[in-house]
Amino acid sequence: MERQLDVLIIGSGPAGLSAAVYAKRAGLSALVLEREYRGTGQIAESDQVDNYLGLPKMNGYDLGEAFLNHAQELEIRFQEGTAYDYEKTEDGWSVHVEDGQTIHAKTVIYCAGAAHRRLGVDGEEEFVGKGVSYCAVCDGAFYKGKDTAVIGGGDTALGDALYLADLCDKVYLIHRRDRFRGAASTVRQLQEKENVEILTEAVPAKIVGEQTVTALELKDGRSIPVHGAFVAVGMQPQTEPLKGVVDLDDAGYIIADETGITSAPGFFAAGDVRTKALRQVVTAVSDGANAAVSALEYIQRQQD
Ligand code: NAP
């Protein structure tokens, strides 16, 4: 059996990489388990991150690469794999990975983030990859010169609409309420774009098409002719394997404050996956640092 790690970090987004840097610099043996090779989480899907202190107008992919390179310069260990079960043992945690391996660690820092929430209308599943997308930065280029709809009213939807406006012939921003959740400054930028049409109090009912999407139908009976529908209706925390392991809130987020301490001893949470008011790169990075320090203190207490 391999020697027990001090800390197993789940996820290689900003929270996980920051936790890894702090753990390594504190002299802890750490391993980052990432679902995809050189993945940096949601940040890679942002065209522009303009609110990370000191690095204005940064492309999200490039910022993620900079984080990753920093961790790699410190020779932090990475392994590809998906953990599906977390078992508390007498002296730590046994984490079962889908390839059949079990990883033993004194502590776990869980930074698996959140995944794209589904809109939940007819046609959505059928047309995923054939006109329905959850990532404008990844798929926008396929819709150059075409008409698209962005569904949602948060910062992601607003940013997606802005990004697509520079590529597409026409962009409809479809929001179910009359007030946006995202930044007013971005709404103003969108209002100034001639090829953006903002439809509020517009509730999607169905995505229709033949081989690919041809229209988005609204509950009020309107049919919006589009080639692509970009769904940006929020995120779902990636906590499915944690039911019965740590306390989650009603929406599925791990209950933890900025220390990352959860209801389970030696199990810490950082980034978008925990209960918090502001889910941003800067708060994820700060969470990772805090959780690594909490893990270090926990290990030291166990040794006393
Ligand atoms: P979000 O803020 O939760 O917004 C989700 C939006 O989708 C809301 O406007 C919501 O409508 C709408 N929605 C949810 N379910 C729906 C449904 N079934 N049908 C139609 N509309 C639905 O999610 P987000 O935009 O992904 O942002 C997540 C977090 O990341 C936020 O804290 C955001 O500030 C942050 N973020 C920041 C940046 C940046 O600063 N550059 C970029 C992206 C995201 P209601 O408003 O009616 O609830």
UniProtKB/TrEMBL annotation:
UniProtKB keywords: Disulfide bond, FAD, Flavoprotein, Oxidoreductase, Redox-active center
Keyword Cytoplasm set for record: no
What molecular function does GO assign, one term?
A: oxidoreductase activity, acting on a sulfur group of donors, NAD(P) as acceptor
Q: Which Pfam families match?
A: Pyr_redox_2
Record-annotated FAD/NAD(P)-binding domain positions: 6-288
**SUPFAM superfamilies to which the protein is assigned, alphabetical:** FAD/NAD(P)-binding domain
What's the name of the protein? Thioredoxin-disulfide reductase
Native organism: Eubacterium plexicaudatum ASF492
